[in-house]
User: What shape does this take?
Amino acid sequence: MAQLTTAQSEAAAQVYAALDVAGGRTRLVGGCVRDALLGHPCADLDLATQLLPDQVIARIAAAGLKAVPTGLAHGTVTVVAARRPFEVTTLREDVATNGRHATVAFTQDWARDAMRRDFTINALSANPLTGPL
Assistant: This one.
């Protein structure tokens, strides 16, 4: 689906396998989906997942990849595969907001997560193995 370099594809395949992309628990989100739909190369891959941050970290470690807890309070883990970063964020919804600052709760609901994203393009998601949803 996404136009990736060979090195990106190999690293992405490792991340996809670890995070159950085939089972539908993790999707590409935002700009990389837009770029793929336009036929442009993807500069970076951001992913959203139904997995909780501790599950992401455990799966990534089990796959022999590096997990960096960059924003656990908001569900974000940076995964490093072949020296390439992938930002992985657990699906979430806003519980309370104060300007751009939000208290979030994790969810399993793709629609709820999409509704809280700040730009329409960021609400796009796609399974990298099968295409846009």
In short: The beta strands are 26-29, 46-49, 66-71, 76-81, 84-90, 92-98, 101-106, 125-127, 131-132. The helical segments are 6-18, 31-38, 53-62, 110-116. The mean pLDDT is 84.
